[in-house]
Amino acid sequence: MASRIYAVIAGVGPGTGAAVARRFAAAYPVVLLARRAESYDTLVKEINESGGSAMGIATDVANADSVKAAFQTIDEKFGKDASCASAIFNASGKLALKPFLELTEAEFENPYNVNCKGGFYFSQAVLPRLLKGTTQTELKYPPTLLFTGATASLKSSAKFSSFAVAKFATRALAQSLAREFGPRGVHVGHVVIDGVIDLPSSKEYLKDAGPDAKIDPASPLLALPARWHGSSPTLCCYLGDNTLKVDGQKTLIDACIDEGDPRYMASDWSIEFRKLKLCEHPAKDLMKHVQAYLEAKEKDCKIKGVHVLNGAFIEVAFASFLGSVDADATVFGYYGDDTVPLEMATYAGAARYLSEVAVDPSANGFVNGEKVPVQD
Ligand SMILES: NC(=O)c1ccc[n+]([C@@H]2O[C@H](COP(=O)([O-])OP(=O)(O)OC[C@H]3O[C@@H](n4cnc5c(N)ncnc54)[C@H](OP(=O)(O)O)[C@@H]3O)[C@@H](O)[C@H]2O)c1
């Protein structure tokens, strides 16, 4: 491995770890860490045989000496001056799904040791190597440290106490590191995977809940944490009164500027509103105010505004209270004739475009979203 740039994934298995490793392997040599070689061996072989470059190192992230030894091996392979382009902390302790009064100290400690102490050891080892990348001109994106979270990172359900405590703590660690290292050029993020991945280890969960109840390990969704590398937009979904939509967004834009976020995706996702004059369509005035605020800030600050223009949301436009559809008579009427491009979008389509734009750092300004002619 002659490259002086690499990505490292701590906690590689058949789920998120493998998905992220495959995606990073398209851009960098990857180093895969897990306690057992069998967790990464097949993947290392697959990546190396398909033109990428991968190495596995047997590592226990909950053990300080083991993490130190892993990074010594990395330095020996890539050189002491090599930079880490991206690091993902993906290891997670055991989920002891038990009533609290039956939980043993060892069961409580296990996720704490892997997620919290492991996150600490890994971050302390990798951050100096990520900081090296901030001056590295070969890097396309800012160096990134990402943590994978779960629903339990935000919500602590009954019987989840040991796991959720550790997952909350990992999120806290990520948040603190983001505040400290963001201004120094390292993007730190925490990505919540809100669902159950269909893995041998989770075959008992939701087993009678139908084919879509779990996330397919082959789903591109699982590589999403890797796509966050190099992109840290703030995506606003405010829907509310004028104060929230205008003043609330201005507050959020100011917060983004303070945090050094490079892009702000405004909550418009709207049909084309730029040609409208103020007061011509009061609902769009809000977007014009936010656009003007962003444009003013773009002149003095590093923030870039992003506006995704979709068609009219079909779920709203076809709602019976608007009168364009009479469901009983199965009649649809709309204004204009075939020469008027009345363009529609769906919530699902808009969400697809928004997520694509969110992970593409080069998508700025006005971007076309889903626009389907109403006849279609
Ligand atoms: N699985 C799900 O349904 C699900 C759902 C939502 C969120 N998540 C989150 O997604 C992330 C990844 O989960 P995943 O299930 O997709 O896992 P995965 O990527 O399939 O595998 C994770 C790997 O971490 C390794 N690991 C565990 N403890 C370790 C330690 N102390 N040191 C080094 N490596 C260790 C394990 O290999 P070894 O045993 O060989 O060490 C395991 O194969 C976690 O943050 C998890 O909380 C998972």
UniProtKB/TrEMBL annotation:
Q: Which Gene3D superfamilies is this protein grouped with? A: NAD(P)-binding Rossmann-like Domain
The UniProt entry, under InterPro entries, shows:
NAD(P)-bd_dom_sf, SDR_fam
Pfam families cross-referenced by the UniProt entry: adh_short
What's the name of the protein? Uncharacterized protein
Where does this protein come from, organism-wise? Coleophoma crateriformis
